[in-house]
């Protein structure tokens, strides 16, 4: 058997040392933890292939620690629970939470080795973990969102999620996916017209997810409406999404009327990250841990000041931007602990342009008549956009919403010269 990293968690020193000796004799690398807090730290540093976890510990019981790891997406390794006076109920609860097996103390040598061997083989079949809705912490905003999604899902087979691009809409969609069922993220929209039943067959008892429903053409929207009407026969949940709110969809007629009417009845607004900033520290820690798991880079903890700096920042790019910042912090910070200075350094790179734009003071004199102030604003507005589009009048016409003849007249009136 190949050597594996094994973490033994038990508050009794005699048991820790006994298990350590046995497992090291088998060629494994063993780390020891006497309580839950040490186990948390070792779990992040060691990234063990297997954990032997005692149920009864002074600071936090093993079941609670197992649940904590499961909720944070950290059960990337099998966990064997141990107890000197376990019950069937405890064993069932541990298994439900994701434990691989349950051993009663005193543990027989052959039973231990057989269970450890089976658990190590099991690691090959463990699914890759990723951020999920349960990683968002305990804010009222997210708790209410989960309840609203669950309530709708009990009564509706089709849901419509409205939220910011780069945000948590895909996570909400996956939250609504029944466990161990197909997930079909639709990218070939033409199949909605040519083979809608094939899509439903592929997703039977699972989920079809349409990321931005307004990207569909009129014919494809009609195909989606047909698919929704047939989905119940296949046990399929159809989840559509858009960054456009219902008023905008209605006003601009972006969707076929029948489809819009179907989706509007199950629409849910997904909050952006700036609406639940209190969850950012938990989310950052979960992201960092999963990145370490996936890429095998060294784990670096974020100190309290660093987490506070991230919580207090603005996130125009929502979750995607936060994830990029966390990855950059892990890869570029030089010390073992990420500090507030590190966060400020990285945020300056990621959000510098955004901060500049929001903090820049427009050179506008408000102590003048309205007409002169309006002209000054318009002059600033057009000069600003002309720089951005490099004096391209077609683009400036699109941005300003002015027909080109009117645009030239306006620029002349404001005394703005058009450079060739």
Automatic annotation (TrEMBL):
Lineage of origin: Bacteria, Pseudomonadati, Pseudomonadota, Betaproteobacteria, Nitrosomonadales
A Pfam family matched in the record: Response_reg
InterPro entries: AAA_lid_NorR, CheY-like_superfamily, Homeodomain-like_sf, P-loop_NTPase, Sig_transdc_resp-reg_receiver, Sigma_54_int
Residues of the Response regulatory domain: 5-120
Gene source species: Methylophilus medardicus
PROSITE patterns: RESPONSE_REGULATORY, SIGMA54_INTERACT_4
Keyword ATP-binding: yes
Sigma-54 factor interaction domain boundaries: 135-331
Molecular functions per Gene Ontology: ATP binding
Residue numbers bearing the 4-aspartylphosphate modification: 54
GO biological process: phosphorelay signal transduction system; regulation of DNA-templated transcription
Keywords, sorted A to Z: ATP-binding, Nucleotide-binding, Phosphoprotein, Transcription, Transcription regulation, Two-component regulatory system
Keyword Phosphoprotein: yes
Name under which the protein is recorded: Sigma-54-dependent Fis family transcriptional regulator
